């Protein structure tokens, strides 16, 4: 069975403690109502996974479709998540950073290797 893999991207903004998930990335994983942000320090990667139902221990984020219709991206704010992610990625400077990755359509997941991180001039 052939897997459909699409390009995906997210932006990390340590100054505003924000992760911005681009609309095409969410579409590529099936326009989920709920997502999880996952980090693997060993593999040095970040993933966004579509989730079917909300459970308290899963730490899911609800995607508000109305906000997504008016914007080109969906933003999640988390000081702790961004702090830890920057530590794993070795980001010591302020700025805005883009991560490029791949979205597996059938699996409902997008993976972003931290070695793809690039500073974005805003």
- Outline: globular
Task: Give the number of DSSP strands.
Answer: 9
**Main sheet?**
9 strands, antiparallel
Percentage of helical residues? 10-25%
- Please, how many helices? 3
Low-confidence stretches: none
Query: How many separate structural domains?
Result: 1
Question: SSE order in H/E notation?
Answer: EEHEEEHEHEEE
The separation of the N and C termini measures 41 Å
* β-sheet strand percentage: 35-45%
Radius of gyration over alpha carbons? 14 Å
Overall mean pLDDT stands at 86
Structural class label: alpha+beta
Q: How would you explain this protein's 3D organization?
A:
It is a single chain. This protein has 122 residues and is an alpha+beta fold. The protein has one domain. The protein is 19% helix and 43% strand. The chain contains three helices and nine strands; from the N terminus they run E-E-H-E-E-E-H-E-H-E-E-E. It has helices at 23-28, 65-70, 79-89; strands spanning 5-13, 18-22, 34-40, 45-51, 61-62, 73-77, 96-104, 109-113, 118-120. Strands 1, 2, 3, 4, 5, 6, 7, 8 and 9 form a nine-stranded antiparallel β-sheet that branches. The longest helix is centred in the C-terminal third of the chain and has 11 residues, at 79-89. It is globular. The mean pLDDT is 86.
